[in-house]
Amino acid sequence: MNTEFNGLVSRRGLLRTGAGLLLTTALPPLPGHAAGSNEYRIAAAPARARLAGDSRPETDVWAYNGTIPGSLVRLRQGEPARLVVENRLDQETTVHWHGIRLPNAMDGVPGLTQPPIKPGGSFVYEFTPPDAGTFWYHPHANSLDQLGRGLAGPVIVEEREPVAVDRDLLWFLTDWRLTDEGGIASGFGNRMEAAMSGRVGNTVTLNGRLSEAEPVRAGERIRLRLVNGSLARIMALRFEGHRPLIVAIDGQPCDPHEPEGSRILLGPAMRIDVMLYMQGAPGRRYGVIDDFYDGLSYPVTQLAYDEQRALREHPLDAPLELSRNPLPEPDLAAAERHDLTLQGGMMSGMGGMQGGGMMHGMMGMGGGAAWAINGMSMTGDGHAGMEPALTFQRGRSIILMLRNETAWWHPMHLHGHSLAVLSRNGRPVSHRQWQDTVLMAPKDIVEVAFVADNPGDWMLHCHVMDHQMAGLMTVLRVA
To answer: Which residues, at least 6 apart from 472, have a Cβ–Cβ distance to it below 8 Å?
Structure first.
């Protein structure tokens, strides 16, 4: 069990939870979408949403195309996409297409890869997604505030040969800190939270609303795409009475396997695709529980079976495994080896750490950076002139040893690449596993490998957004 929790959220107020099936196999064209194309218009603007149930007030949010989560962007593998982002906020923004291996100029890091989009301005993102899978998009400017107020949306890149399922569903899970009046609580960038767990909220939504139940039918096979769009909340999901099989992690297919301990561990920014055979009884309900934090478990929703007889008496006789994406395989024997050590946070001390980059008004304990990588802190969201911690020759195979010397969990995200996870704490991983966001427990040592085939300056940072803003960020250069 995990005991790491910042204690700023009460048991009573911890959780009202999740809602609505967003994605089926037949969707109408979405707002701003040219039907039959890979072209979208996405506007970031203030909006209102009923996050906490019909009996609670609406919440002032920032949203893409007026919805929480933002409009589903559905692309096709290997086909050019054009996404026009309009900024209708009163501050600068960008969009990062999280997990997609795209050109550096399209990566959405202000100053580092593009000028920020000014209020009233727009930016055209153009790229060809090489990989099918489940991804998402969010700001990389004032990201703690903008993501925390609702700016996030899902991306699905369709496989050329889709797997056989009865339904393809998406659950976009988001954590919010709401006041009793239904507003988003102030206090972004709290110094103590920045050095601990980050901003964990008191309300979790599923596709933008609380969910009491999600309708299912006995005998069907469902592909369920799970996305954690939270600022800091880590989730460990249990599906009572069911045996989900993990088939993809962070958009990349893996060997189908049951999750360790029957709990799907989902850190902020991670995505996990599971196959669910609906083996429950017609008319019954089965809980989906998040029990990551000790003593603070809560129901995300229930799987509510209708009264119809089972669609089939036995599981669908069709392959579960997804087609692999065209990831370059690293040459482990010839690979360069580098260490990256995560340091800092409450209970660790930051003596001797050097500051790097601008503070952008964010702070750790004592008004300075709270975290570092290899003794260097980069705070904020990214900006021009950030010096790389490491430089790789294009095409070289790289092995990184990620060492978490802190007392806290960190989902470490590398832009522009996917990482083959080789070992954790000296033990080889059990299944083929590629990730762009690697969740590290306190004191974990994780060995990852990749081919540095995508030129440019790429962010590597913790996706607990308070941690990133307070220094847990660096740049890796592929030249």
So the answer is: 342, 344, 370, 371, 372, 373, 377, 410, 461, 462, 464
